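Changelog entry

Holo records now carry the ligand SMILES as an explicit input line rather than a separate metadata file. Below, a converted record for zinc ion, shown in the new format.
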Amino acid sequence: MTALKADDIGEERILQDVRGRIAAREGDLVALTQELIRIPTVNPPGAFYQPCAELIGERLRKRGFQISYVRGEGAPGDSDAHPRINVIARREGKRPGPTVHFNSHIDVVEAGQGWSVDPFGGIVRDGRVYGRGACDMKGGLAASIIAAETLIEAEPDLPGALEISGTVDEESGGFGGVAYLAERGWFSKPRVDHVIIPEPLNVDRVCIGHRGVWWAEIETRGRIAHGSMPFLGDSAIRHMGAALERLERDLFPALKRKTTSMPVVPEGARESTLNINSLHGGQAEPQGGSLPSPVVADSCRMIIDRRFLIEENIDEVKNEVREVLDGLARDRAGFSYELRDLFQVIPSMTDREAPVAQAAARAIRRVLRREPQFICSPGSYDQKHIDRIGKLRDCIAYGPGILDLAHQPDEYVEIDAMLRSAEVMALAARELLRGR
Ligand SMILES: [Zn+2]
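Structure line, unchanged by the conversion:
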């Protein structure tokens, strides 16, 4: 009993020390978040990656990190105008030991309409920092940098190594970023042991994985004819209408019946889902108010976005759609189709008993004095590449910010959440580096 008590006192002392040091850096944390937001790293096209990578790299160089800039050469979108520049910072401890890596993407989606503040101004109001990328995920990146710097200052004799990366293109699949680096060994043992991705998933939740994704294009074919005599042609749009009806009748109800043991949030995403991202049939409407020409559509294309569960197999996911379309090809005169794969991601889930998940959970209990929630994300993020390419399973997403605000106008991150999450990240990294 006495020993346990001493442990508790020790843990409380460490927490208070870390908390005090992070609180003293609040101004620095906010300023860093603002600086990051003010570099409009909008993707596409992937603008200003280099100055953003250098902001991170040159700051950490001054704190004893070795800095590598790695260009995702030849990756989609990489060009001399928009080079895919990633930054990886590594600081060796005093003795050998494991490596804890914080990975954040530096790209943001376009600002879009509806903002009441400058999306790239980084303004602070009511305890929040506003801007595109504030929550997804420059606030998390800044919090992880502050966490690592605090830990180094508080415990200069830590074993192992700390790494911080700022990587590109997460919003467009991560091919020039984490995937590129993972293919070259940056996210594998023995270089790295534990990865925390500070995506905005709320300060009391540990995200252990995500659902899978399959994007595909379905095209139906027809025969062009004059619009006044449609019986001389064959409408690709009507064929697509039939395909939609079949999806409604057969596939949507079947997907609703498939549920998962993954703790996906929100709960609606614990089923398989299908979204129709877009639909284009016939001639494009001309600009300037003129009318489209009267012809029967000879082509209609639809992009589908299927999100699937860890219990499902990607081939089975594709076959379900193919079966619906093959059924129509048998039943409906003139129906023919093509199905093209556009993009796919296999679901990924770390064991909740994995060291990084448990270290984060314990840190959340200590910092917030409540039970952490283990969740999975409805959409995917760079964990897929660390898992599939890097073969590193000890990876979670944990960071400040509210997921629902990502990609919205007036996106913000709460300063308090950044501070709390920095405490959690520092304590979790400490435990992973030196043991409990
Ligand atoms: Zn993100």
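Spot-checked after migration. Residues 212-284+291-345 form a domain with the Alpha-Beta Plaits fold (CATH 3.30.70.360). The chain has a mean pLDDT of 95.
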